[in-house]
Amino acid sequence: MASNVGSRAFQMERLRKQFRKEAPQLMQSAVSAYRAGKAAEAATLCRRIIEVLPDTFDALHLLGVIELESGNSAEAERALGRAVQANPRSAEAYSNLGTALFNLQRFEEARRFQEKAIALQPNFATARTNLGNTLMRLKCLEQSIQAHDEAIRIKPDYSDAYVNRGMTLLLLDRDEEADRDFDRALALRPRHLQAIVGKGVVGLNHRHFDAALALFNAAVAMSPTAEVLAHRGRLYAQIKQVAKAEADFDAALAIDARLEIAWRGKAQVAVLRGDVAQATAACNQVLASNPNCEIATLLLGNCYARQGDLQAAIAHMDRALAIKPDFEEALSKKIFTLDFTDVDFAFHQAIRKSWWQAIGVKISRRQLGPRNLDSERRLVIGYVSSDFRNHSAALTFKPILRHHDRAKFEVVCYSCSAVRDAVTDECQSMVDRWVDAWQLSDRELADRIEADGIDILVDLSGHSEGNRLPVFAAKPAPIQVTAWGHVTGTGLPTMDYLFADAALIPQDVRHLFAEKVYDLPALITIEPLPEAPSSPLPMLRNGHVTFGVFNRIDKISDDVLATWSKLLQAVEGSVIVVKHGALSDAFVRDNLVSRFDAHGIARDRARFLGATSREEHLAELANIDISLDPFPQNGGVSTWESLQLGVPVVTKLGVCCASRIGGSIMSAIGLDDWVAADDERYVAIARDFAARPSELAALRAKLPSMVTSSEAGNTELYTRRVEEAYRRFWRDYCSSAAAPT
């Protein structure tokens, strides 16, 4: 046996000696095949050499390069790892091994090998810019810039290094510098795909959607890579072209099933479509491979918020902010979500001031030119919103646009949404000037507002989605007001006034706000509903009381569910109808049903209705005896709609703006006895009125006229009060500006 083993070893050594003579020619053939574009043939020759001579550096290195270029990064790592063992002095092999590890998202290891390559060859420009890319992924952004700077110093005509530096500059919000780098790259290589994509991303960041789309389309025509398709999908998602966005993200994932940006896009599209289950799955797909992705973390928080799990939602928003403390979208989303929780004025205003400290202080305040200080002249009022469309917020400010005294006020609207519908057309028809501002960056919009000579600029969004608060941080108008769309305070010291009312913000907490609070008859009003036939009290025909909740699902807290459960137990045979568009999503509906079950509300006592037209939505109120206001965040538009159709609303007065809106509206029309101070009183009000059907029927008949006869519900009178406020603000400004310094 020993003799046979020795014989085989002898034969193998003879084969190796003979093959060593042939190997150089085979290696030369492999290199020639590679240069001729015959990668498979070259790889076969390399493997043949390695099989007999496993430590042949040139074969290992070329095989690793071929696998790397073929997208087989794991195979490339194996070959290149053996290559650097065979030749520890090859800077190029270390650099290529770093690239393979980068592709495998093993960034710390990649960094180590790229730094080794640079140590061996300090003027290795490719290794330096590749190290810059790795440092970017490790979030060492300033070090990344330095690495690209060195690559460009070594090789000033290195187009890839300019592109790589531009991509890092984008992450530092240094868009103009990034754009210059992309232009330099294109001057060196006019068809540089990544430079074209980079310029598209700059356009997207600046809201130049048409220009960005043209660049992305050009890039797709050149090479429809997964990354290019995903960036175009991001653009479509931002302008709410959901079907096109989803098609691009799906196409990207068909090419690269692991592409993070495409999975993030899938999550965003699913959120836009209201598909919470799919959005959650896409977020988890991203976070499984990149637990520190702040965007996916925030999107997952949004998914929890959609289901009413606010504790989990805010925890994810906090996690996103821990990863990126100046993540503006996460800050505003957290502020918005906290309005659904039971915390007090001091807490709410403190978190709003954190937005200013993280975002606002970085924005330069404008130095405005002199103004015509005639206190009685015609004033120019500018309204800024992304909701001049079929959106509940539009119902609150359309009455003001409609009833403005145009002889005394010139009205300009800055529409910041790509979505346009019949409501948009209606709003445009009611104003003096209309600016489609959705493709203007914050700086460009501020420039436009200043050039338009706006005297009083009005924010209609607060911290809700689509807000342009960075514009207000720059203060492009002498007076700024936040109103109607999401009025819970902005935290901006550049915001002069906040429209509210006496019930909404008590005097003893007003010092907590960045804005000066000015009282209107009520926080909001809405236009009169179309004439609807009066409906008899449903309990008279049904033989039981029907309570209604026509509000967002995320307003339904566990506390309010517990209270509703007590109410249903107290009112024998009563049922509750919950209606909201999100309930068309089975995942959301099943989750809410489970929450009702957990609070002891039997399934035969609750009905759940999903999306319908607004007309059908309002018609459903004819089947409701008493509306139940959720808490801690109350309804606003839904409360007015219910009252206009004769359905009274029981509400509870809470400890912050969002939890006092219901009380504000009910008090404004003289229904203070429907406002509870605590849970027990809330149940008692609903129970007692449900037990007095004749009194409830009489109230149902007279409620519409009570609304229209009040200053809060009469939209023309309400608008006059708004205009009185504007005039007072302007007079105070003129007096202050004219006073000697």
Structural class: alpha/beta
Question: Please, what is the oligomeric state?
Answer: single chain
What CATH calls the topology of the domain at 538-711 is Rossmann fold
Rounded to the nearest angstrom, the distance between the terminal CA atoms is: 109 Å
Q: What is the CATH architecture assignment of the domain at 538-711?
A: 3-Layer(aba) Sandwich
**Percentage of residues assigned to helices:** 55-70%
Radius of gyration equals 32 Å
Biggest pleated-sheet summary: 7 strands, parallel
Gross geometry: elongated
Given as residue ranges, the uncertain stretches (5+ residues, pLDDT < 50) are none
Mean pLDDT: 94
- Our count of helices gives 33
CATH superfamily of the domain at 538-711: Glycogen Phosphorylase B
State the CATH class of the domain at 538-711: Alpha Beta
Strand order of the largest sheet: 3-2-1-4-5-6-7
- Beta fraction: 5-15%
Please count the beta strands (DSSP E, at least 2 residues each).
13
